[in-house]
Every structure is written in C-alpha cells, then in structure tokens.
Design goal:
- This protein is of the alpha/beta class and 236 residues long.
- The chain has two domains: 4-68 and 159-233, Ribosomal protein L1/L10, rRNA-binding domain (Ribulose 1,5 Bisphosphate Carboxylase/Oxygenase, 2-Layer Sandwich), CATH 3.30.190; 74-157, Ribosomal protein L1/L10, domain II (Rossmann fold, 3-Layer(aba) Sandwich).
- The protein contains nine helices and nine strands.
- The strands form three sheets. A four-stranded antiparallel sheet has the order 7-1-8-9. A three-stranded parallel sheet has the order 4-3-5, with helices on both faces.
- β8 and β9 (223-225) form a beta hairpin.
- The protein is globular.
- It starts with 5 loop residues before the first helix and ends with a helix.
- Belongs to the universal ribosomal protein uL1 family.
- Binds directly to 23S rRNA. The L1 stalk is quite mobile in the ribosome, and is involved in E site tRNA release.
- Keywords: Repressor, Ribonucleoprotein, Ribosomal protein, RNA-binding, rRNA-binding, Translation regulation, tRNA-binding.
- GO terms for molecular function: rRNA binding; structural constituent of ribosome; tRNA binding.
Length: 236
C-alpha cells in the first residue's frame, strides 16, 4: 500500500481495506464514521458493471432524484426563449437565456453546476458542446435535461437529481450525499441509484451485471463491497 498520512491510517485502523470485503451497510457505515476531513465530505459510490460501453447498446446512462438530495446548492442554467424564460425563472433557475447565454459561455463563463435546455434550443446549444460535454454539463434528453417542462426539470435538479454514465472501463460513479447525512440517509440514496441502474440493464449485457461496488468519501479510503452482497442489495 502506498504511504498515507496519519489521519488516513487512523481511518482504516483495524481493517484491511485491500483484502476485506463488506456488506453494503458495513461499507457505508465505515465510510461515514471514519471520514476525517474538516469539511463535510461527499460520499460516493462506484459500480463495476458487466457491460462493454464501446457498444452503444451496452451504454448505461441515466438520472435519478435522490430521496434525501445531495446536501448542496446547485446552480442551474437554462437555455430557452420566449415565454419559457419566465417559467424557468419562476421555477428557481439561477441563469436563464438563449443566444446571450451561449455567447457568455463561449467567452469563458462557466459559473453553474447543471444545464437544462428546451428541445428547440439544442441546435444552438450544440455550438458549445465541446465546452459543456467534457464537464458533464451538456443537456441530454435521457437524463431529463432536454425538455419543455422546465418547472419539473429545474425542481428535480434543485432537489438533488444525480446524472450518471458508465465509463470506458465499465465503472459508474455517483455521489450519494454528505457525511453529515448519516448512514441511514446515505443508504436510502444508494438504493435509489441502485434501483435505477438495475432498470437500465442492457438486454445485450451477458454474464454478471453487478460485478462489484465500493463506497468512499472525498478524502477517505474506499470500502469494497462483497460481490454477492452487492448483487443482493441491488437486485433484492
């Protein structure tokens, strides 16, 4: 194991995090109770999925509203025009615009966390796809961020809607909330994400779908979950 500081070593005291595997409940409990940063760390989940994302029909991508939210303020930008701008502002969007908002982003401004767009704006939003895409900010119909129902989309994002996408290695990462939530609320959020990932299982994926899971915090160690326990939690 690489060298770690005193706080990290104390956080894993009595455990062999390289060899031990935990139940979902144990992993969440350890991650929350052994977090040591001075700030309220984010708890994250990683799923190792039995898919090959290089094939489009095995791409796992979606979004889910967490029952307990994420515990942070989300700044929302909405690309829309006409009457929809008033709807977006009334729903609580922080930044609303059309060509003017696109030009602002082209100039280097990116002071927002989530982006929503009406379908009629997507051709223009595509002009800044190279800026938004790599940052995970590009609106997408599959995650509910390309829609004419702006009131619903904005409220979902404000409440803690999490978007996720499997990477090239078949691993999917998602935030579960803050350490201050406690194990109970984190588990409820994890179950919501797990249920959605199970619903999105590609019909072409062969073999074991949930190959592994691990829970960690922003600064803390990762706690790997036993594969049988992981499948039991997701599929149960």
């Amino acid at each position: 194991m690489p060298k770690h500081g005193k706080k990290f070593r104390k956080a894993i005291e009595g455990l062999d995090i390289l060899e031990q595997r935990f139940s979902v409940e144990e992993a969440v409990k350890h991650a929350v109770e052994r977090a040591y940063a001075k700030f309220d760390e984010t708890v994250d989940i990683s799923f190792n999925l039995g898919v090959n994302p290089k094939y489009s029909d095995q791409m796992v991508r979606g979004a889910v509203s967490l029952p307990n939210g994420l515990g942070k303020t989300v700044r929302i930008a909405v690309f829309c025009q006409g009457e929809k701008q008033a709807e977006a502002k009334a729903a609580g969007a922080d930044f609303v615009g059309a060509e003017d908002l696109i030009e602002k982003i082209q100039g280097g401004w990116l002071e927002f966390d989530k982006a929503i767009a009406t379908p009629d704006m997507m051709a223009q939003v595509g002009k800044i796809g190279r800026v938004l895409g790599p940052r995970g900010l590009m609106p997408n119909a599959k995650t509910g961020t390309v829609t004419f129902d702006l009131a619903k989309a904005v409220s979902e994002q404000m409440a803690g809607k999490v978007e996720f996408k499997v990477d090239k290695a078949g691993v999917l990462h998602a935030p579960l909330g803050k350490v201050s939530f406690g194990p109970g609320k984190i588990l409820e959020n994890l179950k919501a994400i797990a249920d959605q990932i199970l619903r999105l299982k590609p019909s072409t994926a062969k073999g074991t779908y949930i190959k592994g899971m691990a829970v960690s915090t922003t600064m803390g160690p990762g706690f790997r979950i036993d594969s049988v326990e992981a499948r039991k939690f997701v599929e149960g």
